[in-house]
Amino acid sequence: MTHITLVAGARPNFMKIAPIIRAVKQAKGQGQNINYSLVHTGQHFDRNMSGRFFEELNIPAPDVNLGAGGGSHAMQTAAIMVGFEKYLQTHLTDLVLVVGDVNSTMACAIVAKKMNLPVAHVEGGLRSGDRTMPEEINRIVTDSITDYFFTTSKKANENLLQEGADPDHIFLVGNTMIDTLLSNLSRLRKPLIWDTAGLSEKEFLLLTMHRPANVDQIQKLESYLRKILAHSRGMPIVFPVHPRTRERLQSVSIESPNLFITEPLGYLEFIYLLKHAKAVITDSGGVTEEASVLEVPCMTLRDSTERPETIELGTNELLGTEPSYIPPALEKLFAGIWKQGGELPFWDGRSAERIVDHLIHLLQICA
Ligand code: UDP
Questions:
Q1: Is residue 128, in this structure, part of any structural domain at all?
Q2: Looking at residues 25-36, what average pLDDT do you find?
């Protein structure tokens, strides 16, 4: 039996890993000699950022939780590496599969390679070109030692080829986060805030912010909120607040009847809001992908993106990281001239199946 160790650690990982687990189980059910275990590094640990997604997305309980959350980047990365090395010393595996670009992705890839295990990276090849972002460092380091790349776009393949990756080891499979989106569209759940804020379809804006460049300076965070409130024509703004942002937000003195601040929402509730929003203002990478597929106008508060296809083919536009760029973007939205999204190749809900098919072939698993 070939054994694959799957790694997940932080919120955006859970949506990416859920369909892969399903596809492995399906292959096993069809007689393939493949099995998996799931390692949760504990990078995100509270219910709103972790446990809830396991319940909502029917992800089986992890085989182990390394409990390596909290602390600085270095402390967290080190704790994950120590925990994962111990785990691999006592659990035989044929391949380690990591997803996305969080600290867990990089830390576990390094540990696996140093134990001479092959590493597969789902969402390999994304590059923003902005090395001030910790995620970009995680992407570059992970891909520099990855054996098998599963990519979401042609551009990611090009990036990898440019960096000298073996073309025979790069597989354009699509987007497992979108697998999760498409398979849950019929299960979405209206959040409580829908009624408390008196929301109606396409009559509110959704806001998420957690990148250091946007939320670390309290003045800037406040300025964003003021600009959004001043130019949103009285529409409710729903702002589910990432734990990273929560602390800073406490020092911001804005009271408005149109601003509805909530805890981070569960996936089914968040996507319900996203689907019905007039637009989303965000600095999340995953949300730009989901908004593009749902054809919801997306304004990204960043200077660069590692997901250019959401701009070229989707509904995403980069506004930059200056609050003053918000008013013209909202004007454009209200003028009804925001671009329409098109189809994103391979983002069809079957990416995880493709990944598992490739793994079966690569690891020469026989039924
Ligand atoms: N998300 C969620 N609840 C929220 C905000 C986001 O379930 O309150 C989901 C969102 O739909 C997407 C993922 O979390 O699937 C994105 O996570 P995050 O913004 O933390 O990561 P990034 O994409 O920036 O790496």
A1: yes
A2: 96
Q: Is 191 in the pocket of ligand 1 (CB under 6 A)?
A: no
Looking at the fold, whether 326 and 355 belong to one and the same domain comes out as: no
Say what angle helices 285-294 and 11-29 make with each other, to 10 degrees: 60
* Ligand 1 within 6 A of CB of 9: no
Question: Is the CB–ligand 1 distance for residue 323 below 6 Å?
Answer: no
What is the reported pLDDT for 367? 65
111 and 64 share a domain?
yes
Annotation marks residue 210 as catalytic: yes
Q: List the catalytic residue out of 169, 210, 231, 358.
A: 210
Atom of ligand 1 nearest to the CA of 100: 25
In this structure, the answer to whether residues 196 and 226 fall within a common structural domain is yes
Domain residues for the domain of 211 are 186-334
List pLDDT tens digits, range 299-347: 999 999 999 999 999 999 999 999 999 999 999 999 999 999 999 999 9
Number of domains in the chain: 2
Buried/exposed code over 333-364 (b: 16+ C-beta within 10 A; e: otherwise): beeeebeebeebebbebbbbbbbbbbbbebbe
